[in-house]
Write a structure and sequence with these properties.
The protein is an all-alpha fold. It has one domain: Up-down Bundle (Four Helix Bundle (Hemerythrin (Met), subunit A)). Helices cover about 55% and strands about 0% of the residues. The protein has five helices and no strands. It is elongated. The structure holds zinc ion. The site of zinc ion has 8 residues, from α5.
Length: about 170
């Protein structure tokens, strides 16, 4: 007799989703991004003249990537915050100067990482918000389509290639 009956697959998928990292960012995301169905349909999003319209599947794929990255970023932020907190605790009496210097450096490094992770997290969050609002793929500088291919490669992109190039030259 087989050990695993057919119902096995549907159970216990998202029990672990809840009660993770309690940073302000992840709380905000809870209400803003995840789980809500996009208000705008994929076919309404702008694409370049030589591109096919977005399909729901293509958009869902990009969205899933953004959400998976957000989950990973939240874990990184939590880990970095833990490292920072532990550094704070162990600092103090008994350290020689080199030790203290190394710890300060490590702490600053962790803080810089955390800052970058948060920044990326917010960029991902905004990309998903733009999907919901139906403005995903509009260049923030010139208002023209960013292009589906570019977004599939860089889902967080907010500028079309010419505008991005111009910005980088500045
Ligand atoms: Zn542009």
């Amino acid at each position: 007799m087989p050990a695993v009956p057919a119902e096995q697959t549907s159970a216990a998928t998202s029990a672990t989703e809840k009660g993770r990292a309690s940073s302000a960012v992840s709380k905000r995301r809870g209400t803003a991004a995840r789980g809500r169905r996009p208000a705008a349909s994929a076919a309404e999003l702008p694409v370049r003249g030589d591109e096919e319209r977005w399909t729901e599947a293509e958009l869902a794929e990009v969205r899933t990537r953004l959400e998976a990255e957000m989950t990973a970023l939240e874990a990184e932020i939590a880990a970095a915050e833990t490292a920072i907190a532990q550094g704070d605790v162990s600092e103090g009496a008994g350290d020689d100067q080199a030790d203290t210097g190394a710890k300060t450096y490590a702490r600053e490094h962790e803080m810089a990482l955390t800052h970058n992770f948060r920044d990326l997290l917010i960029q991902n969050e905004r990309a998903i918000e733009r999907m919901d609002a139906g403005t995903y793929g509009i260049c923030e500088s010139c208002g023209k389509p960013i292009g589906k291919a570019r977004l599939q490669a860089f889902p967080r992109a907010t500028l079309c290639v010419p505008c991005k190039t111009r910005e980088e030259r500045r």
